[in-house]
Specification:
The complex is a heterodimer of chains A (about 300) and B (about 350). In chain A, helix 1 (about 1-30) runs antiparallel to helix 12 (about 275-305), helix 5 runs antiparallel to helix 10 and helix 7 packs across helix 8. The longest helix of chain A has about 40 residues, at about 220-255. Chain A is built from 12 helices and no strands. Chain A is mostly helical. Chain B has about 350 residues and is an alpha/beta fold. Chain B contains 14 helices and 12 strands. Classes of the chains: A mainly alpha (about 300), B alpha/beta (about 350).
Chain lengths: ~300, ~350
């Protein structure tokens, strides 16, 4: 097991290099001049522009820039913001803003798991019933709506109708995360409900469920212990993968609900071509995603004894 | 603590009156309503099982033998399956008249079942010991420790070496024969009065098949339980059963003691089955299988369901379905011309 984890950690290095390079290159390839953009309508003096280019290595070729950047990253220096929060270290910006994003992602994750799992389980147990059809219909609808549409609908239909539900910002504490959390979770929640439904339905037909019934176990135990445990194997895989989807979803969600989190910063940074911020934060996202997947793969062994790691 | 049934069984069951069957199936009808029509899987099956007796239910796949066992255990998914007629009595009590909860308590406790393929019939994510202990724990309400001790005892009883260490093994870590032994141990956990074994050896190697059948027979006589042996294997029936009921198209077509039925079949289907196995000590140029295939349960032919495949068939057979009639002491046949079949061999 220890060797397995070590091997997985080593495998992360090429993945991390590959993804950061892709992000860096894409950012590099964006049209427009970030330094000129800084000045806005009034162009900056040539000396100032040169100074900035010099400081951020903007005149180097792509590979050299990337190598210099990674050299700093390895030492924990993610560079500083060019425009969004000019002069501030990316690590500092992240330290400032991560609590909002983590709260948002957690709220969404909880919504996804609670509602998605419950809907899936109920639909599977009452196959063909009204509830089942409702779950199947509503999940198709949710999956086909982009988050920003769901978010706007929620703001108008719920937020503006009830005073105590805020539609933007985080000033009102925990309740501020209600609508953004639901909006962010909506697509994943629908996928999860469908996956849970299908997985549980398949397992309810399995031979070992028949055996459990023949043993004289109560129905609740047959479903809750025997069928559900096996149904959770694909569900957990999906949840790990989905963590990455939720993280990238925070970018749009925080933008729409005006939350001061990492996603909101990335949202602004992309628009203002603040390369260091975009690359730095996305790199951290990738890292979180990789670690989450490793944890889930390890959890697998606990869920399914047929899986053993060497 | 677990209701009156368990209170009675935990402290030893009350003895049955002599001559009283422990399990009785009366005029059972089961059908499956599917989009392509109604499949009549079981059509008026009756049999009874004395305590300590082995009854074999012999038939090809699709003859309704497994479905009748599933009806006893309450394993038929409804929809699409429906028990439309009949009753099943365990110790004189009609199972269909009981509440779901009381019926559940009889499952595994009074009547237990062993399935064909132990690899899929055991839950892959729980250890073998856990699964055996679970039966005991849920029915008897004992502590985990006590249940595990019982599980080890049971594994030992069914011949699994170093049973105590194997408690934490998972089904996939067992060989096929060991899995079936574990399955049997699980069925025996509550000392049932009736054990239904549905093709218990079909998924196993020939050598292991004999071991498992020997184990079942030995346990049956030792524990005095009734054994319902569902199989398509004539040799298994010949070696292990006291009585045999031959099923065809959801009906019992012949019934009697194994020795009588095997030496003097009174139904053309049974006769055909006998002719379709190779004789052990004699070379034959070709086997003599029954022509044709069993009928589709959605379209069972009128009259005798076996008539399209039967060498004895005549006009009467195409029109009138023969009832299962007594043809001797403890023997019955559902053939209009059974005397011809029996005498003509």
């Amino acid at each position: 097991m220890g060797r397995y984890i070590l091997r997985r950690l080593l495998q992360m290095i090429p993945v991390l290099i590959g993804t950061t390079f892709l992000i860096y290159a894409m950012n590099f390839a964006l049209p427009g001049d970030p330094v000129a953009a800084l000045g806005g309508d009034r162009p900056l003096p040539q000396e100032v522009q040169d100074q900035i280019r010099e400081r951020y290595n903007l005149d180097d070729p792509l590979l050299v820039q990337y190598a210099k950047y990674m050299g700093n990253v390895v030492q924990g220096d993610f560079g500083e913001s060019l425009s969004v929060r000019r002069g501030q270290d990316v690590t500092e910006i992240v330290a400032d803003t991560w609590p909002v994003t983590v709260r948002l992602a957690l709220v969404a994750f909880v919504f996804e798991i609670v509602i998605g799992l419950a809907a899936g389980v109920v639909a599977a147990l009452r196959r063909g019933s009204f509830v089942d059809n409702l779950v199947r219909g509503s999940t198709i609808l949710l999956v086909s709506l982009p988050i920003f549409v769901t978010a706007l609908v929620l703001q108008v239909a719920v937020g503006l109708r009830f005073d105590w539900i805020p539609v933007a910002g985080t000033q009102q504490g925990a309740v501020s995360y209600l609508l953004p959390g639901i909006a962010l979770a909506s697509v994943s929640l629908a996928y999860l409900a469908r996956l849970t439904r299908n997985s549980l339905m398949e397992n309810l037909r399995a031979d070992y469920v028949r055996t459990a019934t023949a043993k004289g176990l109560p129905r609740s135990r047959v479903v809750g212990r025997h069928a559900l445990r096996n149904s959770m194997i694909p569900v957990v895989t999906f949840l790990a993968f989905d963590l990455g989807v939720l993280l990238s979803g925070t970018i749009v969600t925080e933008g729409i609900f005006n939350l001061n989190g990492i996603g909101g910063i990335v949202f602004d940074a992309i628009r203002q071509q603040d390369g260091t911020v975009v690359v730095g934060i996305v790199t951290m996202f990738v890292l979180v995603y990789l670690v989450a997947n490793l944890i889930v793969d390890v959890l697998y062994a606990a869920l399914d004894p047929r899986i053993r790691y060497e | 603590m677990n209701g009156d049934y368990n209170a009675a069984t935990a402290s030893g069951r009350s003895p049955l009156p002599p001559g009283e069957p422990v399990l009785e199936v009366r005029d059972l009808h089961v059908e499956f309503r599917t989009r392509r029509g109604t499949l009549r899987a079981v059509n008026g099956v009756s049999w009874s099982l004395e305590p300590g007796e082995t009854l074999a239910i012999l038939g090809e796949s699709g003859s309704g033998k497994s479905v009748s066992a599933q009806a006893i255990m309450g394993l038929i998914d409804s929809p699409p399956g429906f028990i439309t007629e009949g009753e099943i009595r365990f110790r004189g009590e009609d199972l269909f008249a009981l509440s779901e909860d009381r019926r559940r308590r009889i499952r595994g406790d009074g009547v237990a079942m062993v399935f064909q393929d132990a690899l899929t019939a055991l839950n892959p994510v729980f250890s073998v010991g856990w699964q055996i202990a679970e039966t005991y724990r849920v029915h008897r309400g004992t502590s985990k420790r006590e249940a595990y001790a019982k599980a080890a005892e049971l594994l030992d009883r069914v011949g699994i070496p170093s049973a105590h260490e194997r408690l934490n093994s998972y089904p996939h870590e067992f060989s096929g024969g060991m899995r079936q032994r574990a399955m049997i141990a699980m069925a025996l956990a509550l000392d049932p009065e009736v054990l239904i074994a549905d093709e218990p050896t079909t998924a196993l190697d020939v050598t292991v098949q004999a071991q498992i059948m020997d184990l079942l027979t030995e346990l049956r006589s030792e524990l005095g339980m009734g054994l319902v042996l569902i199989t398509h294997d004539l040799a298994v029936v010949a070696e292990n059963a006291d009585r045999v009921a031959v099923m065809y198209a959801g009906r019992i077509v012949e019934e009697g003691t194994v020795s009588e039925v095997f030496t003097e079949p009174a139904h053309p289907y049974t006769l055909g089955l006998m002719h379709s196995i190779p004789p052990l000590h004699r070379r034959v140029a070709a086997l003599d299988p029954i022509p044709g295939t069993p009928p589709n349960p959605a379209r069972i032919p009128p009259g005798c369901p076996f008539h399209p495949r039967c060498a004895f068939a005549r006009q009467h057979c195409r029109e009138v379905e023969p009832p299962l009639e007594r043809v001797g002491e403890g023997r019955a046949s559902a053939c209009h011309y059974w005397e011809e079949v029996k005498g003509g061999e």
